């Protein structure tokens, strides 16, 4: 998430989130997958509706790694229901986990591990300032984030460079 905020976040988001990420004071998890959407991520139904000063979030995410240990989340949500293509009308939001309306349930795997979770949103809230990138352009943000992940996985030297830049910024 750090490189995505560095590339696409506002100055306020960079100042607010990057230092705590680098210090490890905030733990983030990714909420993309949903029941019923399978590998078709653009079919997501979790939605965020504009309310005074922010967003009201309702829906469910699944297969979230270590959500029960996270302090914050970044997620894709539906912000426009009436778009011609399902990849449109999706936004990329940041939110705190420790709030009313967010419930995390662990999923016990066949091996007895509980690293995966379901996350339910029942009128959870996040400030309007926690929108990363443009409204309804979350698909673009997700692709950017996933490209940063691929760099970190496939090229350790590039990852070291990106981490060095993040450290300098912080």
Summarize the structure.
The chain is of the alpha+beta class and 170 residues long. Helices cover 30% and strands 32% of the residues. The chain contains four helices and eight strands, in the order ααββββββββαα.
Number of helices, where a helix is a run of at least 4 consecutive DSSP H or I residues: 4
Averaged pLDDT, please?
Answer: 88
Principal-axes shape call:
globular
* Beta-strand content bin: 25-35%
Q: Helix coverage percent of residues?
A: 25-40%
The secondary-structure class comes to alpha+beta
Low-confidence regions: none
Looking at this protein, list some descriptive labels.
globular, four-stranded antiparallel β-sheet, single chain, alpha+beta, 30% helix, four-stranded mixed β-sheet, 4 helices, 8 strands, 170 residues
Question: Mind explaining what this structure looks like?
Answer:
- By secondary structure, this protein is an alpha+beta fold.
- The protein is built from 4 helices and 8 strands; from the N terminus they run ααββββββββαα.
- The protein has helices spanning 2-8, 11-23, 138-154, 156-169; strands at 28-31, 47-51, 54-65, 72-78, 90-96, 102-107, 116-127, 131-132.
- The strands form 2 sheets. It has a 4-stranded mixed β-sheet. A 4-stranded antiparallel β-sheet has the order 2-3-7-6, with no helix packed on it.
- A hairpin with an 8-residue loop joins β6 and β7 (116-127).
- It is globular.
- It starts with a helix and ends with a helix.
Tell me the layout of helices and strands:
Layout: H1 2-8, H2 11-23, E1 28-31, E2 47-51, E3 54-65, E4 72-78, E5 90-96, E6 102-107, E7 116-127, E8 131-132, H3 138-154, H4 156-169
Helix pairs in contact: 3-4
């Amino acid at each position: 998430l750090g490189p995505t905020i560095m590339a696409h976040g506002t100055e306020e988001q960079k100042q607010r989130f990057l230092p705590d990420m680098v210090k490890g004071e905030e733990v983030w998890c990714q909420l993309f997958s949903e029941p019923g959407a399978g590998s078709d991520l653009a079919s997501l139904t979790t939605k965020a509706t504009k309310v005074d000063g922010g967003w009201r979030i309702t829906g469910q995410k699944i297969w979230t790694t270590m959500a029960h240990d996270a302090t914050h989340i970044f997620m894709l949500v539906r912000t426009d229901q009436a778009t011609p293509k399902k990849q449109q009308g999706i936004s990329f939001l940041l939110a705190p986990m420790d709030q009313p309306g967010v419930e995390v349930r662990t999923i016990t795997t066949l091996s007895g591990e509980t690293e995966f979770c379901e996350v339910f949103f029942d009128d959870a809230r996040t400030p309007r300032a926690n929108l990363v990138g443009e409204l309804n352009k979350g698909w673009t943000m997700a692709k950017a984030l996933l490209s940063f992940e691929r760099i970190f996985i496939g090229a350790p030297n590039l990852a070291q460079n990106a981490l060095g830049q993040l450290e300098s910024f912080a």
